[in-house]
Every structure is written in C-alpha cells, then in structure tokens.
Design brief:
Length: about 100
C-alpha cells in the first residue's frame, strides 16, 4: 500500500508500518487531539506554563503521528522521509 492508504488506515485507528523498516517492530499510530487539557496535565514545563497563562488555564493538543521505535520508545511527532512518502510497502498491523 502507498502512503495515502497508510494515512487512511491511521485515521481509521490502525497501526501501520513499512516492510522496508527491516522488521524492527517499528510502527506508527495516530494520537488524537484533545481539547482543553488543563495546565497541570502537561509534563513539559513550557507547555504547562503556556496553558496556565490562558484565560481557561488549559490548551488544546492537536493530533499527531507517533512511532513505536526499534528500541521500544514512543516518538511523538514522527515525520516521513521522502523514501517513506514514495514507498509502496506500507501495511496495516493486525491486532491492537
């Protein structure tokens, strides 16, 4: 599948990966946005301070694509390379 199919699958709540990632158990997921997150729920000090400074004491968090890395961490805000964009080896992982 191409990147368009992968994005559609992410929007449907699926995890996707590329065969070209050499089987390192890496995958992508779409983290949904959240409205009106209270300042005390932000773990990054600058984000917490910004949310606290707003009239509501909260801030909206936008959706983002996250990656489960080969070393077992979750990377917030994954960006596609040109190779990723042009690849036709995307697939949906079975089982959540």
């Amino acid at each position: 599948m191409d990147i368009g199919g992968a994005i559609a699958a992410l929007k449907d709540g699926e995890r996707v990966a590329r065969r070209g990632w050499n089987g390192k158990d890496m995958w992508l997921a779409l983290s949904p946005g959240v409205s009106a997150v209270p300042a005390d729920k932000f773990w990054a000090r600058p984000n917490r301070a910004y949310a606290a400074s707003t009239e509501s004491g909260a801030a909206d968090v936008l959706p983002s694509v996250t990656m489960k890395t080969a070393t077992g961490e979750i990377l917030m805000g994954w960006l596609a390379s040109q190779t990723d964009l042009l690849a036709n080896d995307w697939f949906v992982l079975e089982g959540q």
